[in-house]
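Quick log. Single chain, no ligands specified.
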Amino acid sequence: MENYGNGSKPELEFKSEEPTRVLPAQETEKGLYFLCNLDQNIAVIMKTIYLYKSEKGNENAAKVIKESLSKVLVHYYPLAGRLTLSSDMKLIVDCTGEGPFFVEGEVNCSMLELLGLASVDPMILNNLIYEVPDANNILETPILTIKVTKFECGAFAVGMAMNHCMADGKSAAEFVNSWGETARQLPLTIPPHLDRTILKARDPPRIEFPQNEFLDIEDISNTGDLYQEEIAYGAFSFDTEKIGRMKNKALENGSLTKCSTFEVLSALVWRSRCKALKMKPDQMTKLLFAADGRSRFDPVLPKGFFGNGMVLTVALCKAGDLLENPLSFAVELVQNAVKLVTDSYMRSAIDYIEINRARPSMNGTLLITAWSKLSFHTTDFGWGETIYTGPVGVPGKEVAVFLPHGADRSSINVHLGMPASAMKVFEDEIKDI
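-> predicted structure:
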């Protein structure tokens, strides 16, 4: 239990009922369900919360959400199965139809009080997620769990923990929006396309690009020593005015004619982090981010493709080059990483994983994950759109998360963690933009 610390209440208490299984409302297909190499490479649990506040109150929230989950699982039946290993030791889904775990809970505070506490201690939001206590590995961890938590104020939270091997951000957003449509007794706007064999490796596999996302960089700057310090976590807000100033700065020397918010913000965070971590001029450094390959595959992926259609792309250079050149230099590296993502590049990455069973190395690397174009906030179970949607937990040490912010979602909050002394340098580096 967490203390409020302000005397308003003695302690914050979360209560949960026993978990139950939610079975699909109808008989669904059984057997083994193929996961492609882009799925294999990212088998981690994504935790997301959806917060709702409405005049309707929360009395029927758990019932509506549970019943509609049962119905939408008929369309998304692999989510009702479990992970196992195929004969060639790859992850595959056994479509058992056993259903995800579902938990009802409540907490003795208002939603705004909890969000206030979470601004100081983000890990408190973990209480809105259900995690199986005795799962020792990814095969024992459920593909999907759902928790509905009621607040004293009449608001409620839906907490979802889903294995990333089942869906990237776009697919996950389409799933929860379909779930919301089902709760409102509407037909699915985007029915899922479940066949992932369209992203099978080629036979024989062909590696046609360097695939530098897998490059293992030597840490000649000894940044590992810095990470022995206490890790500080920060959230930095970039409103439209500040983003505009950044774009003007990137374009001022005339080497670029345009740049996007994502490109300039990624470039700034990458450069500033390299400086904060005191990387030596000859230190190679990587920027990784996911590009949506759906429209870049040939042929394009079908509408509603359910799975991982995102491909990691990479920018690579020496820290000295990044820091000694103007911001436009880093922005152009990001733009070139975007252009890199073609059908042949993505097929080469799939084949690289087939041959090497590799995961991207994170030495000297910043991984950016951007939620700015994902439509999680539109999920409506009958109580209107969310008042807050976001990932739960703090980013890993190599990760920066871009979250949309503000009523029109045009501002961006950048969340990241780094050694406390480095965080001070990072703050100083970005504040004068």
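Confidence is low (pLDDT under 50) at residues 1-10.
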